[in-house]
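B., you asked whether I could sanity-check this one before it goes into the benchmark set. Here's the sequence:
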Amino acid sequence: MEDFVGWLVGILWSQPMIYLCLGIGLLFSVLTRFLQVRHFKDMIKLMFQGNSSKAGVSSFQALALSLSGV
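And here's what the prediction gave me:
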């Protein structure tokens, strides 16, 4: 069983898999026309504006919650 897990890890974390993940990330960036770069200024402005949603969570709190889950 240990040999099988080692073989599987060798496939999953090989160089082709890393290049595949980078390529897919670039593809999604191109398809969304680099949304994360185009709206960076708006994201920063909304994050520090201090408005809360109807649930009572501000933009900064949502960012902190999402980063803490990583």
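One thing to flag: The radius of gyration is 19 Å. Otherwise nothing jumped out at me.
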